[in-house]
Amino acid sequence: MEQDATLAHMIDLSRKKDGTNDTAAFAKDVDKGLSLKQKDLPSRYFYDGKGSQLFQQIMSLPEYYLTRAEHEVFTSNKEAISTRFAGEGFFHLIDLGAGDALKTKILLGELAQQQADFDYVPVDISGDAMQQLTQSLRSELPDVDVQAVVGEYFKALEWLQQNKSERKVVLFLGSNIGNFEKKDSIEFLRSIRSYLSPGDRLLMGIDLRKNPDVILQAYDDTAGVTAAFNLNLLHRINRELGGEFKVEQFRHYAMYNPLEGVMRSFLISLQEQDVYIRALDKTYHFEAWEALHTENSHKYSLEQIEELGKLCGFAVETVYYDSEKRFADVLFTVS
Q1: How far apart are CA 270 and CA 288, in angstroms?
Q2: Model confidence over 127-137: pLDDT tens digits?
């Protein structure tokens, strides 16, 4: 009975109108990326079940400061943030890419304590993650009204726009905006803006520019967990698409460019090789030492963030920092 009650609080937007799931989209993106002259795979495909487990381990690593810094931001500013959210009556708290909502739960607890009038709408492409989150919230914060949505961000925002007319506060945490190239970040934020109205807000996590060595170590830890996370993308292709990657013939490689403020991750082919993928009935050739790009992570100055907001129809209302100013959560209003 408990599981049935939990599932009743979930909306699944992950299936297409013809009933198919996202495996076909994964296959299409893999074919496109491996067919490029400079091979490139979308970082969003890191997060299958195994990838999500590995990322949970990454967040606990001593080198990976990002999660601890943002956790500190919320712990130190939870009352102020929650008061700003709740000061204008009922609102939907929409958490894009919620995952286990570890940091968001800090705010949810404070909002519940303040008896704020809101509901929580976590959004994630992983149905398993949303089911687990809904169950944990029923136990930890039973007074919080939860409506989990399984699907891509914009499908969820479109559904919310059509079905939820009240004020919206959108969370986009964990410096996920850093995974976008500049033009894509502008397109992404403008798309979010198109689903919002005056009075709505966006709270976005930003990894700030800092000592390049600190940044590089966060993406190339000595325990090799980040390497396993990156290589799991090849394992996923093998599992889901019938790929024949010999994963041991690839290695993780990370580099940071302090001029551009960009951390880049690659998988390097250790020898010349051909890889067949059954779902695509196609073979892909790799030269020895050829790089397969898997992720960008942009680091920002506050000035760059303010300019990005202006370009996308947002104005900075407040900036919340951790004690060392390594990380910021920036509260934008719709301008």
Answers
A1: 6
A2: 888 999 999 99
Q: What CA–CA distances, in Å, run from 66 to 63, 104, 198?
A: 9, 15, 31
- The dihedral through the CA atoms of 248, 289, 41, 46 has a sign that is positive
Number of domains in the chain: 2
Place of tokens 């390497």: 227
- Going by their DSSP bridges, the two strands 250-257 and 262-269 should be labelled as antiparallel
Question: What is the tens place of the pLDDT at every residue in 137-176?
Answer: 999 999 999 999 988 888 888 888 888 788 999 999 999 9
CA distance 35 to 41: 10
| pTM confidence score | 0.86
Edge to edge, what strands does the sheet with 262-269 contain?
250-257, 262-269, 291-298
The reply to whether 130 falls in a domain is yes
How many other C-beta atoms are found inside a 10 Å radius of the C-beta of residue 159?
17
Residue 313, domain extent: 62-211+301-334
Which pairs with CB-CB distance under 8 Å and at least 24 residues apart come from 34-43?
A: 34/284, 34/292, 35/284, 38/291, 38/293, 39/284, 39/286, 39/290, 39/291, 39/292, 39/293, 40/292, 40/293, 40/294, 41/233, 41/292, 41/293, 41/294, 43/179, 43/294, 43/295, 43/296
